[in-house]
Design brief:
single chain, mainly beta, Glucose Permease (Domain IIA), Immunoglobulin-like, 2 domains, 15-stranded mixed β-sheet, 4-stranded antiparallel β-sheet, 2 helices, 13% helix, elongated, disordered N terminus
C-alpha cells in the first residue's frame, strides 16, 4: 500500500515538473518579444501605413509615419548601421537609415529620415534621438519608415505585436468580399447568390479605421473566413518571413506574399470547395486592438 501511494505521489510530482518545464520553455521561447518594453519612435507623427498594408500588390513591412520632429529609439541598444542616404554614391530606396540591435536577434530600423541627421552614439538609450523626420529614399512625403526585423528567424515583425497599439475603439470596415473561380473570373455582388459548384478563392478588401475620421486607413490585423461554420482561411498580419528568396505570410500555412497580395487592393484570404446546396460564407475582420466586424453572404450552389 505504501509503495502504491509513493508511486502515485512520485507520478504527481513528475507531472508537475513536466508542466513547469513546459511553462518555462514557453516563457523562454516568448521572451525575445515579451521581455522588451518598446515605445513608438514618435509621439507626434501620424501613422499613415501600418504593417501588412497592401501597397499596389506589395506588403508594407513596417510602419510609415508622416510628420516632422525627432525620431526616437524604441528601446536601448547598440548602433550597428548608419547611412546618410546612399551606398557608394548610389541612391538607396531606404534613403537615410539607422539600425539598432536590441539583443535576441531583434533589430529596429529607421528609414527615409533626413539626410542631415546627426549620427547617434554607439550605445543608444531608449527614447534618445536617432534621426530627424525628412524626405529621402523612395518617398515624397516628410516623415520616416519604421521596421522591426528578427534576424534569427529572418522575418519582419508587426511592431504592434511588441509595442502597445495606438488607442482604437472603431471596428474595421469590410469593403468587399469576392470569390474567384478556377478560370480566374471574379464573382461579386449578385453573382454570389447563385453560382456553380467548384473550387473558389476568397478575396477580402478590408481596412482598419482609427479613432480620428481624418486619419488614413490601415491594414487589419486578421481576416478569418468560414463556410457553413468550417474555417476556409485565416490571414494573419503578424510576421512576414523570407525563405528561399521570396516573402511568405501566414494564411493558415506559409503562403507566398505575391499570391496573397495579388488581388490589389484586396487580400487573398482563403479557399472554398463548394458543393450543391446552400452555403453561408462568413468573414470576420479584426484589428490589433481587438475590435472586429463580420459579414455573412448566403449563396445557393447549383
Amino acid at each position: 500500500m505504501k509503495i502504491k501511494v509513493f508511486r502515485q505521489s512520485l507520478m504527481q510530482k513528475c507531472s508537475r515538473i513536466c508542466l513547469f518545464s513546459a511553462f518555462c520553455l514557453f516563457v523562454l521561447c516568448a521572451m525575445p518579444f515579451r521581455a522588451i518594453a518598446m515605445d513608438w519612435p514618435s509621439g507626434d507623427a501620424v501613422l499613415a501605413r501600418n504593417f501588412g498594408w497592401n501597397d499596389s500588390g506589395e506588403p508594407v513591412l513596417g510602419s510609415v509615419f508622416r510628420g516632422e520632429g525627432k525620431v526616437q529609439a524604441v528601446e536601448a541598444g547598440e548602433l550597428i548601421f548608419h547611412n546618410s542616404g546612399g551606398v557608394s554614391g548610389l541612391p538607396s530606396p531606404l534613403g537615410a537609415w539607422t539600425a539598432i540591435d536590441h539583443g535576441d536577434g531583434l533589430i529596429s530600423i529607421y528609414c527615409r529620415t533626413d539626410e542631415n541627421s546627426a549620427k547617434p552614439p554607439v550605445i543608444v538609450e531608449k527614447k534618445s534621438p536617432v534621426a530627424d523626420s525628412g524626405i529621402s529614399g523612395w518617398t515624397k512625403n516628410k516623415g520616416f519608415y519604421f521596421v522591426l526585423y528578427d534576424r534569427r528567424e529572418r522575418r519582419w515583425v508587426n511592431p504592434s505585436m511588441i509595442i502597445s497599439p495606438f488607442p482604437d475603439t472603431r471596428a474595421p470596415q469590410i469593403i468587399s468580399v469576392d470569390l474567384r473561380n478556377s478560370r480566374g473570373e471574379q464573382l461579386s455582388g449578385p453573382a454570389l447568390r447563385s453560382l456553380p459548384q467548384g473550387a473558389y478563392t476568397i478575396t477580402v478588401n478590408a481596412i482598419d479605421t482609427m479613432q480620428a475620421p481624418n486619419e488614413p486607413p490601415l491594414a487589419p490585423h486578421r481576416i478569418i473566413c468560414s463556410i457553413n461554420g468550417n474555417e476556409a482561411g485565416s490571414l494573419n498580419f503578424e510576421t512576414i518571413s523570407a525563405r528561399g528568396g521570396q516573402l511568405l505570410i501566414n494564411r493558415g500555412m506559409q503562403i507566398p506574399v505575391r499570391q496573397v497580395y495579388a488581388p490589389f487592393p484586396a487580400f487573398e484570404a482563403g479557399d472554398a470547395l463548394l458543393s450543391r446546396g446552400q452555403a453561408n460564407l462568413e468573414v470576420i475582420v479584426q484589428d490589433i486592438a481587438g475590435n472586429s466586424r463580420s459579414t455573412i453572404i448566403r449563396m445557393q450552389v447549383e
